[in-house]
Amino acid sequence: MFKTNFRIFTLSLLTSFVGSMATAQEASSEVELNAISSEEAAQGWKLLFDGKTTKGWHNYRKDTVGSGWKVIDGALVRAEKGAGDILTNEEYGAFELSLDYKISPAGNSGVIYHVKNTGNTPWQTGPEIQIQDNIDGHDPQKCGWLYQLYPSEVDATKPPGQWNTLRVVITPDKCEHYMNGVKYCEYVKGSDDWKKKVAASKFSKFEGFGEPTEGYLCLQDHNDEVAYRNIKIRPL
Known about the structure:
Layout: H1 2-29, H2 38-43, E1 46-47, E2 57-59, E3 69-72, E4 75-78, E5 86-92, E6 95-103, E7 108-115, E8 128-132, E9 164-170, E10 175-179, E11 182-187, H3 192-199, E12 215-219, E13 226-235
Antiparallel strand pairs: 1-13, 2-5, 3-4, 4-13, 5-12, 6-9, 6-13, 7-8, 7-12, 9-10, 10-11
């Protein structure tokens, strides 16, 4: 009798555990994409992409977004040749940015901040956070690094075709990059160390590079397919 009751008890626990796991998985799968929770709203977060349109964005030095950027399955996708770099309609100074990205095999893109309209391209004024397939990508600058300025000794990226989460904090006192929850680097924009690194980089020939303290956010067209979703910002 004891053995029978013990088996029943054990089976009950197992059934309860499996049921709890299924409920958790269902809850996870029901998380709404491209949305702001009430808690996030209270913290000052806002969406930069509604999951349906390109509203709030424009191609560099243009008023609208061209047809090369498409909204596919709730993601903002650089899908066609000649799409061009796209920028937010608003400028931001100090902020926290969070977004998901999915890069194509051997693909390359970038997230650029504090962009101004004074250069021939966004990266001539704003620092670029590299987005790349670290497995087959051709650029020695790896994903999550601040291009040519601040690298990372770790690689927390997932393979191409899978979603990654990039979080960036940009303030006058300290800037930080996180990939899938792992801290990559920190720096002080405009510090002596910053100026030394800029002077040793390809950006040294562009007058005023990295000097603006506010500007547009940019998603780069580097001739490869890349998708972005859950693009959120919190001004600081």
